[in-house]
């Protein structure tokens, strides 16, 4: 099957592809979603039908792209991949849609970032498999309707709340991926280690899993770094102690928090008394984009009880204060 990628390749893409499961049976975690998708795929194939459009939402690195590829493989279809920001003109979308064959999968990552004018062209494509292209401008303008082959659109988003209601309503299959627990991530780390021919002990795999923020992509990246550390300093064997030392070198603590996580919490405590503080003020204070804080750092901090979103702004919870030996109401300056 042809897998056409229209986005730019990442430097670690070969690594990701090697570790990416190609079948539902190889995909670890997200059991309800996996069972649901597998059933719908089987039913569509049995009818000789095209799978309904699917929306995959959730934080980055949980397997949305991997599931899109597995769906395409299971449907014995080609897949074409792009992302919302890349499609900046209706003509770009028309070119993609008219190149699809019956049953093909079009995967759009970050679909919530698609421009409104482009998004509206998708409505008729998703519902009736037609697109209306406006040719020329002014008095000579005319609309041409193009028929396209029935296809499956799989959209991935880290911020489903930014999707418009008309777009969301056109997806028949809505699936939200959640963070993984440590035991599930341990299985993923052990599978990846086998593929990479890395010698890892069960306790070493669990240590990596515990600090992976509930995210397979992070677990695989930490496995790579632990492999490098073991190669240079530990005879190529990742034990619990080796994994712990490797992750300490990366400034990743026992809770999986990295330097930026702790900077966000510490800045909120020291400069804003623990909050409430708005996302814009927080972003300026830590030198990071608001969108990155909202999509990458906040979900895990909220999930683990370090941070809370309120109508007034972000607030550090007692566990966040405890990370620095503080209690709510006490800032670093007050202790000094």
From TrEMBL:
One of its GO terms (cellular component) is Holliday junction resolvase complex. It is found in: Cytoplasm. InterPro entries: AAA+_ATPase (IPR003593), AAA_lid_4 (IPR041445), DNA_helicase_Holl-junc_RuvB (IPR004605), P-loop_NTPase (IPR027417), RuvB-like_N (IPR008824), RuvB_wg_C (IPR008823), WH-like_DNA-bd_sf (IPR036388), WH_DNA-bd_sf (IPR036390). Its EC number is 3.6.4.-. GO terms for molecular function: ATP binding; four-way junction DNA binding; four-way junction helicase activity; hydrolase activity. It catalyses: ATP + H2O = ADP + phosphate + H(+). Mg(2+) binds at residue 65. Residues 181-251 are annotated as: Small ATPAse domain (RuvB-S). Pfam families: AAA_lid_4 (PF17864), RuvB_N (PF05496), WHD_RuvB (PF05491). DNA binds at residues 309, 314. Residues 254-336 are annotated as: Head domain (RuvB-H). Its main location: cytoplasm. Residues 50-181 form the AAA+ ATPase domain. It is an enzyme of class 3 (hydrolase). Keywords: ATP-binding, Cytoplasm, DNA damage, DNA recombination, DNA repair, DNA-binding, Helicase, Hydrolase, Nucleotide-binding. Gene3D superfamilies: 1.10.8.60, P-loop containing nucleotide triphosphate hydrolases, Winged helix-like DNA-binding domain superfamily/Winged helix DNA-binding domain. One of its GO terms (biological process) is DNA recombination. ATP binds at residues 19-20, 61, 64-66, 127-129, 170, 180, 217. Homohexamer. Forms an RuvA(8)-RuvB(12)-Holliday junction (HJ) complex. HJ DNA is sandwiched between 2 RuvA tetramers; dsDNA enters through RuvA and exits via RuvB. An RuvB hexamer assembles on each DNA strand where it exits the tetramer. Each RuvB hexamer is contacted by two RuvA subunits (via domain III) on 2 adjacent RuvB subunits; this complex drives branch migration. In the full resolvosome a probable DNA-RuvA(4)-RuvB(12)-RuvC(2) complex forms which resolves the HJ. Has 3 domains, the large (RuvB-L) and small ATPase (RuvB-S) domains and the C-terminal head (RuvB-H) domain. The head domain binds DNA, while the ATPase domains jointly bind ATP, ADP or are empty depending on the state of the subunit in the translocation cycle. During a single DNA translocation step the structure of each domain remains the same, but their relative positions change. NCBIfam families: PRK00080.1 (NF000868), ruvB (TIGR00635). The RuvA-RuvB-RuvC complex processes Holliday junction (HJ) DNA during genetic recombination and DNA repair, while the RuvA-RuvB complex plays an important role in the rescue of blocked DNA replication forks via replication fork reversal (RFR). RuvA specifically binds to HJ cruciform DNA, conferring on it an open structure. The RuvB hexamer acts as an ATP-dependent pump, pulling dsDNA into and through the RuvAB complex. RuvB forms 2 homohexamers on either side of HJ DNA bound by 1 or 2 RuvA tetramers; 4 subunits per hexamer contact DNA at a time. Belongs to the RuvB family. This is Holliday junction branch migration complex subunit RuvB. The lineage of its organism: Bacteria, Pseudomonadati, Kiritimatiellota, Tichowtungiia, Tichowtungiales.
